[in-house]
């Protein structure tokens, strides 16, 4: 588990006359194990903020620290972060097991260790009976669980979700939401979840960050945020 500190985080795309400031000094302390949702309209800077936490986007000013370590000081391979995207891409020619194991093989983990981690993820996501299948033999919901499995096996301290429910039909959206909640409970990780959907935010969040035009307008529990006049 790890806390996330955002200290006066600033982002602008481009330079000089073409500079486009998109994040204007965000401050927030996210606790160990907390589930925080970043909500706000399209274009307000949610994805940019999340990608900066993931270390996928350069920070123009301020600082982001995870578990007390400044993100940009940590080698990408050593960052205990897993990101789940809107569109899950699995390797079509690999089995479910191989899809989940691939990232660990690259990191040269021992075969037994890989087996243990994949088994644990498969148990949590109820994929145990599907490990030898290929992605094309799975339902949409099962494929999505494999994609989450690939994140879980890395044993991350922090889970980042970028609108993972947006492209799903209503039934799969509810099912996946419940899975994400179960995952958070079971693993006790810190979660940062981006969405433009207020209902999703209220259902999932312990605390909500409300963004608007690159600024953090509110940060509080769903009750605090949505009881305001
Ligand atoms: P959200 O996730 O809330 O929809 P984004 O973080 O994607 O918002 O975008 C915030 C702003 O930054 C938008 O105005 C967007 O056009 C701009 N933006 C995002 N990515 C880039 C980029 N790579 N280059 C230039 N501008 C970008
Ligand atoms: P999202 O809100 O999920 O980021 P977008 O359609 O805003 O979706 O952005 C899709 C991709 O295009 C992102 O990788 C983002 O960085 C990039 N992007 C968004 N706006 C701009 C922009 N104005 N200039 C260049 N790239 C952009």
From TrEMBL:
Residue span(s) of domain ABC transporter: 4-229
The organism's place on the tree of life at top rank: Bacteria
Keyword Nucleotide-binding: yes
This protein's UniProt keywords: ATP-binding, Cell inner membrane, Cell membrane, Membrane, Nucleotide-binding, Sugar transport, Translocase, Transport
Gene Ontology molecular functions: ATP binding
Name the record gives this protein: Sn-glycerol 3-phosphate transport system ATP-binding protein
Entire protein: shown range: 1 to 229 of 382
């Amino acid at each position: 588990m790890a806390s996330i500190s955002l200290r006066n985080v600033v982002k602008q795309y481009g330079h000089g006359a073409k500079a486009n400031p998109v994040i204007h000094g965000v401050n927030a302390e996210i606790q160990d194990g907390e589930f925080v949702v970043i909500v706000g309209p399209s274009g307000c800077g949610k994805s940019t903020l999340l990608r900066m936490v993931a270390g996928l986007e350069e920070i123009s000013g301020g600082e982001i620290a995870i578990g007390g370590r400044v993100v940009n000081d940590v080698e990408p391979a050593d960052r205990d972060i897993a990101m789940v995207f809107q569109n899950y891409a699995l390797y079509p020619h690999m089995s479910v097991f191989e899809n989940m194991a691939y990232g660990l093989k690259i990191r040269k983990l021992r075969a037994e260790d890989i087996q243990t981690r994949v088994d644990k993820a498969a148990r949590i996501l109820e994929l145990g009976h599907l490990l030898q299948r290929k992605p094309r033999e799975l339902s949409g919901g099962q494929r999505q669980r494999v994609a989450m499995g690939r994140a879980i096996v890395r044993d991350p301290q922090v889970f980042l979700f970028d609108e993972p429910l947006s492209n799903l039909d209503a039934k799969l959206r509810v099912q996946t939401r419940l899975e994400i909640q179960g995952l958070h409970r079971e693993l006790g990780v810190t979660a940062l979840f981006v969405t433009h959907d207020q209902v999703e935010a209220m259902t999932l969040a312990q605390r909500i960050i409300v963004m608007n035009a690159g600024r953090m307008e509110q940060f509080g529990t769903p009750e605090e945020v949505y009881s305001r006049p």
